[in-house]
Structures are given as C-alpha cells and as structure tokens.
Amino acid sequence: MIAAGQRVRVRDDWPETRGPCHIRTPHYLRGATGTVQRHLGDFPNPEDLAFGRKARRLSLYHVVFDASSLWGDGKPKAEILVELYEPWLEPV
User: Fold this and answer.
1) Residue at 86 is within a domain
2) Is 41 exposed, middle or buried (0-12, 13-18, 19+ CB in 10 A)?
3) 1 lies in some domain
C-alpha cells in the first residue's frame, strides 16, 4: 500500500496502442508526478470489468497534482485531485 504524503509518478504507459482496452487514467497525467492524499479503499479493477473479465481488487488513491506542472499556466497553488489505481503509480 502507498502511504499518504508519498510522492508518486503516473506510469507513462499507453496500453491502448496494444489493442482494445478501457483505461481510467487520463492521458494528461501519464508521466506526471503528484502526492498521494489518501487511500480510498480496494475495488474491482474497472479495466477488467469493462470487458466482463474477472476483476482483481486494486487499491484506489486520491492523488494531488500541481496544475501548473501539468499545463504550465502559472496560477499559484492551483491543484487537481484525481482518483488513480495503484498499478498506475510508481514511487518517486
């Protein structure tokens, strides 16, 4: 499990280039670094459920990103909060 306050990077992976898939991780976050705010619980993997496959349970987290690091708009203290599953997160 990833701890609250831990810095993480969203995997820079593009499974949609390898065939049909259902991805809940936004494109603009792939490769970005953020901070885990909290663990939300463990839930069936929606990427499996979308295809009617048996889904393993995955940890889901709130991760906070600095908006200016994503879009370079320079707005002070603007943040974005996103729900991401653990397999998409790598410790920094």
Assistant:
1) yes
2) exposed
3) no
Give per-residue pLDDT as tens, 10-45.
999 988 888 777 788 999 999 999 999 999 999 999
Domain extent for 83: 7-91
Domain CATH code at residue 53: 2.30.30.50
The arrangement of strands across the sheet holding 7-10 comes to 79-85, 57-66, 33-44, 7-10, 89-91
Provide the domain count of the chain.
1
E strands of the chain, at which residues?
7-10, 33-44, 57-66, 79-85, 89-91
